[in-house]
Write a structure and sequence with these properties.
The protein is an alpha/beta fold and about 260 residues long. Helices cover about 45% and strands about 15% of the residues. The protein contains eight helices and seven strands. Strands 3-2-1-4-5-6-7 form a seven-stranded parallel beta sheet, with helices on both faces. α3 runs parallel beside α4. It is globular, with a radius of gyration of 18 Å. The chain starts with 7 loop residues before the first strand and ends with a helix. The model has no long low-confidence stretch (mean pLDDT about 95).
Length: about 260
């Protein structure tokens, strides 16, 4: 018997990085899964591994930059399984141009669509079901950039992740009386594919001291597996070893000024 036997979980950004590891942890614990992301091929690979734990796994390619598609993901999951117990808002998106001086409205809006509107629309789509059953957990991967905004994360990403953090805080203020709990995870640097979008992608030496996807996935699992009487409201995670980010900051400051 797994600790999540009988539970249904949606995991976004499930094809790579944190979402991929989280999917395997959830499946091993007995949860049936809906795996979402932009590309089907990596989702299919994750699904094959997850099914080895004997759970039901559905793959649902979804572009979370499209709010209607995000809401449709929740509606489809409810139609398929009849309920959603756990929603993991893991998918994230950052801008190439980081500076407030140079970032254009298209990049700014794209970051907000994925990190704010996508989270809002998908979360809202499953809330009625959770409230009706008086139980549900929403875990959202925010960022340390929500707490310490700046050029490393970039102006759009920092602002969007702060919005997602406050969305979670607001949910707990409003919805715990209906049995719905919300958890925000704020990691520092994690060695995931999103780093490739930076003005200066980190090299192997930079990545050697970063947190790994499994570190954050374990925190996601903790939030979801905690007894329903307890909410892990916020988790702040940073690498033990601090690295010199001066070159990253210089590159971020100059990107867009060309």
């Amino acid at each position: 018997m797994g600790i999540l036997d009988g539970k249904v979980a949606i995991i976004t950004g499930a094809g790579t990085g944190i979402g991929k590891v989280a999917a395997d942890l959830f499946a091993e614990a007995g949860a049936d899964l809906v795996l979402a992301g932009r590309r089907r091929a990596p989702l299919d690979e994750v699904a094959v591994q997850a099914r080895e734990h004997g759970v039901e796994v559905e793959v649902r390619p979804t572009d979370l930059e499209d709010g209607d598609a995000a809401a449709a993901l929740g509606a489809w999951s409810l139609e398929r399984f009849g309920k959603v117990d756990i929603l993991v808002n893991n998918a994230g998106h950052s801008s190439r141009v980081r500076s407030m001086r140079y970032v254009g409205p298209e990049e700014w809006n794209s970051v907000f669509k994925v990190n704010v509107e996508g989270v809002y629309r998908l979360t809202q789509s499953v809330l009625a079901n959770m409230i009706d059953r008086n139980t549900g957990t929403v875990v959202t991967v925010s960022s340390m950039a929500a707490l310490n905004p700046g050029l490393l994360g970039g102006a759009p990403y920092s602002a969007a992740k702060a919005a997602s953090l406050n969305m979670i805080r607001g949910m707990n203020a409003e919805l715990t009386k209906f049995g719905v709990r919300a958890c925000a995870i704020m990691p520092g640097e994690v060695d995931t594919p999103i780093l490739e979008n930076r003005p200066r992608p980190p090299d192997s030496d930079d990545r050697s001291t970063m947190m790994q996807p499994e570190d954050i996935a374990q925190a996601i699992f903790l939030c979801a597996a905690m007894p329903q009487r307890t909410i892990v409201e916020q988790v702040v995670m940073i690498p033990t070893m601090r690295r010199d980010v001066s070159l990253d900051m210089t590159a971020a400051e100059m990107e867009g000024a060309k």
